[in-house]
Design goal:
The complex is a heterodimer of chains A (about 280) and B (about 375).
Chain A (H helix, E strand, L loop, with lengths): L30 H15 L6 E5 L14 E4 L5 H11 L4 E7 H7 L1 H10 L4 E6 L2 E2 L5 E2 L23 H8 L3 E6 L3 H13 L4 E6 L3 H7 L4 H10 L1 E3 L16 E8 L5 H9 L2 H8 L1
Helix pairs in contact in A: 1-6, 3-4, 4-5
Chain B lengths: L2 H12 L3 E4 L6 H10 L6 E4 L3 H13 L4 E5 L1 H17 L3 E9 L5 E5 L4 H6 L8 E3 L4 H18 L2 E7 H5 L50 E3 L13 H16 L2 H4 L2 E4 L6 E5 L2 H15 L4 E6 L1 E3 L3 H10 L2 E5 L6 H9 L5 E4 L9 H12 L4
Parallel strand pairs in B: 1-2, 1-3, 3-4, 4-7, 6-7, 10-11, 10-13, 13-14
Antiparallel strand pairs in B: 4-5, 6-12, 9-11
Classes of the chains: A alpha/beta (about 280), B alpha/beta (about 375).
């Protein structure tokens, strides 16, 4: 495919649908950093890219699947995880990466998230958390901080947000990490580990949405990046219960969980298949 | 075996290797059978967290190359509608069985109906075509499930099996033929240079060959309006081209898709139109009417969607009345009336749901029409 005239060569061009650039993400949006970190990690991890698939739901981050030059599926709102589950079960050789946003994965798709984690289905889930619904113009999400302003909470969010790593841990995820777009190196390290992890891996990435969330909460892009730099604490192995997002107290980043337990497919083969079939499949 | 079990066996005979399900009366037995049988043959059964997840998993499995299906009933069918639209838009083969029960809402969970027929046609938002079959017996559901997979793969479209609780729970003898005698079809597969492949460029019959995940074609599939490359294009022209393709591949192949069965219709002057369990009622009623000297015949709809319009229009030209027998208060009846275009009166023998229609009710109606009720 031919790059468009305005496109400058980029080291990730082979993994991008360059004929779809420019992308739709707003100036200052953090999704691009998460996306390029994800592609860089895919390359550096050494996984077979011909057997690697990206699945997204709906929303700004959900557009990720549309820009990656791999088999890529842009599904319905909230349903990337069950779609990815079916894909992985039907062909266990595939590396299935779910790239989507907080609204998609944790509000409309929240039920699927806990069940995918519970089953320990071997997926790499990268969640861009920008604290609001960006695509529709900045509405309150399940991750919007308490009292933050959005178009549907103009006087402040009366509800408390999810602590996503705690939710992932409680549901059974075997790899859980959180970074911000300012911590791109650590993020790439985590995504690479997650891609090679045999189990359900979850990485939350805090990302600015200056146009919708930032504007209404008096947080310029630089203010947000400053918070990411000055009000974050890297604490690998921190207890998931300490991970509420409150920048006034400091937000904990790091790799929190990295454990092993049988995957959905391993357990199914062992429990549900006749021995000779299970062995045949493993061979 | 029961209709539900025969459905599962038909799926296996068709080469189904993935079932994503969620329990619901009266379709649960299909999931139970698949949960036992699939792992034995190297396939996979998974009970998902809800019906939305069940159909999403089915679509994911299909995109990874599996022949995949799910089975549900009214409330679950409603939940599946959005992703049924994704299947239509992304042209992903899959088979969805609706073992209909009386509604609306929770309705009569253990008692049958045929009241999801219009939902089957129009339940997901937007314009699209759908194929829906309606079996009248456990033996037929076995064959129709194979047919459903074949049509789904051939036309890259979701195919619905609109059965009902009565057929699903009816126990009858089912003959399962030798595997070698069963014709199974697979989707047209992607060929040629991988960097030039266009995932939505239609082949001769209007159906685009399908690349599956991991084959190296690097395809993109989206529920957004897309062009031949699969890329989102937000224009009226792209919408028109996509709609023309996804409707055209069905509308231009009606002769291959539509199946009906005519019974004693050659000399009939009253045509009964029916499908599913109500076709059993109608067969009995037609025979009884003939005994009474009424020239009745039955047009049984095996394919309900796309609707056999041509056949209905020609029938309306040559009979005195069209009597639709169905366990709802007038759904397919409306289609019959539309096709009759006033050439023959369209009359409904309906039922609010929860039981089969006794043949006597149909016979009474036929006697009325024939003027034999005086």
């Amino acid at each position: 495919m031919e790059p468009s005239a305005r496109h400058m060569p980029h080291p990730l061009d082979d993994l991008l649908r360059v004929d779809r650039i420019p992308h739709i993400w707003c100036p200052g949006c953090g999704i691009g950093t998460v996306f390029s970190s994800c592609l860089t990690s895919m390359k550096s991890s050494g996984i077979d890219l011909a057997k690697t698939v990206m699945v997204s739901g709906i929303g700004c981050s959900g557009r990720g699947a549309g820009y990656v030059n791999l088999d890529s599926y842009h599904t319905t709102h909230g349903r990337a995880l069950p779609f990815a589950t079916g894909m992985k079960l039907a062909n266990p050789e595939l590396n299935v990466v779910v790239f989507s946003g907080d609204g998609d994965l944790f509000a409309i798709g929240g039920n699927h998230f806990i069940h995918a984690a519970r089953r320990n289905i071997e997926l790499t889930v990268v969640c861009v958390n920008n604290f609001n619904y960006g695509m529709t113009g900045g509405q309150v999400a399940a991750t919007t901080p308490f009292l933050a302003k959005t178009t549907t909470t103009s006087l402040g969010n009366p509800d408390s947000p999810f602590n996503l790593p705690l939710l992932a841990f409680a549901a059974g995820a075997t790899y859980v990490a959180r970074w911000t777009v300012l911590h791109a190196r650590e993020l790439m390290g985590s995504i690479q580990e997650a891609l090679l992890k045999k189990g359900f891996s979850f990485i939350e990435v805090l990302a600015p949405c200056p146009v919708n969330y930032g504007r209404r909460n008096k947080l310029s892009l630089l203010d947000t990046m400053r918070l990411y730099q000055q009000k974050t604490i890297i604490k690998n192995g921190a207890s998931p219960t300490e991970l509420d997002i409150d920048f006034s107290r400091g937000v904990v980043l790091g790799k929190f969980i990295d454990i092993q337990r049988p995957t959905c497919i391993e357990s199914y083969d062992r429990t549900c298949r006749p021995q000779e079939i299970a062995e045949g499949k493993a061979a | 075996m029961t209709g539900d079990v025969a459905c599962a066996e038909g799926a296996l005979a068709a080469g189904c290797s993935f079932f994503g399900g969620y329990p619901i009366t009266p379709a649960t037995e299909i999931a139970e059978r698949m949960s036992e049988r699939l792992p034995e043959i190297g396939g996979t059964f998974i009970q998902m967290e809800d019906e939305i997840a069940a159909i999403a998993a089915v679509l994911g499995a299909s995109c990874a190359g599996a022949k995949a299906m799910t089975a549900t009933s009214g409330p679950g069918f409603s939940l599946m509608m959005e992703n049924l639209g994704l299947a239509a838009c992304t042209e992903t083969p899959c088979v969805v069985v609706d073992v209909q029960r009386a509604g609306p809402s929770t309705g009569l969970p253990t008692q049958g109906a045929q009241a999801d027929m219009m939902q089957a046609r129009w339940g997901s938002h937007g314009d699209y075509e759908i194929i829906a079959l309606s079996p009248m017996s456990p033996q037929e559901i076995f064959y129709q499930t194979i047919e459903a997979f074949n049509l789904s793969e051939t036309y890259r479209t979701p195919v619905l099996i609109m059965t009902d609780e009565m057929v699903g729970h009816l126990s009858e003898k089912v003959v399962i033929p030798e595997a070698a005698s069963i014709k199974t079809l697979v989707r047209p597969s992607a060929k040629g240079r991988k960097d030039r492949f266009k995932p939505y460029r239609p082949g001769e019959n209007g159906v685009a060959p399908m690349a599956i995940a991991g084959q190296g074609y690097n395809i993109h599939a989206t529920g957004l309006t897309h062009d031949e490359r699969g890329y989102p294009v937000m224009t009226v022209e792209a919408q028109e081209e996509m709609m023309r393709r996804i409707k055209g591949k069905i509308r231009n192949n009606l002769a291959d898709i539509i199946r009906t069965h005519s019974y004693r219709l050659e000399d009939a002057d009253i045509a009964v139109i029916s499908y599913g369990v109500s076709a059993r009622t109608s067969l009995a009623a037609v025979d009884e009417a003939r005994e009474l000297g009424i020239k009745a015949g039955l047009l049984r709809l095996i394919t309900v969607w796309p609707f056999p319009e041509v056949e209905l229009r020609s029938l309306a030209e040559r009979v005195k009345a069209l009597v639709t027998v169905e366990v709802n208060l007038g759904q397919i009846h409306l289609e019959v009336e539309r096709c009759a275009s006033g050439k023959a009166p369209a009359i409904l023998v309906g039922h609010p749901g929860g039981a089969i229609i006794p043949p006597e009710r149909v016979i009474e109606k036929l006697k009325d029409i024939a003027g034999k009720n005086h």
